[in-house]
Amino acid sequence: WITSPKPGVQGGKARLVHVNEKVRDFIRSARRATESPEMPDKAYQEGSLHALLLTLANEMTPEEQKQMTSLLLREGITGLLQRLGIRDQR
Predict the structure, then answer these.
(1) Which residues contact 88 (CB under 8 A, 6 or more apart)?
(2) How many CA atoms lie within 13 A of 78 on its CB side?
(3) Which residues, including other chains, have CB under 8 Å from residue 80's CB and lie 6 or more apart?
(4) What is the pTM of this model?
């Protein structure tokens, strides 16, 4: 991360963090890491696969969502289930 001294603060201990895409990615991944263990349990308690899938999709970055969409469009539900080992190869 790029930082610089904060003007007007004596002792040189205060720093400004210049927020760039690297910092944003770190914050997004840290937020998902702390929230992820609780969210799937909550969705399961509601008894809804639909709610779980929506929660997981909302936790994905835009790039992850794009890749998942591409996979689903390319392979369909059958291909996804085969990749997960849920459905036999045919």
Answers:
(1) 82
(2) 3
(3) 71, 72
(4) 0.43
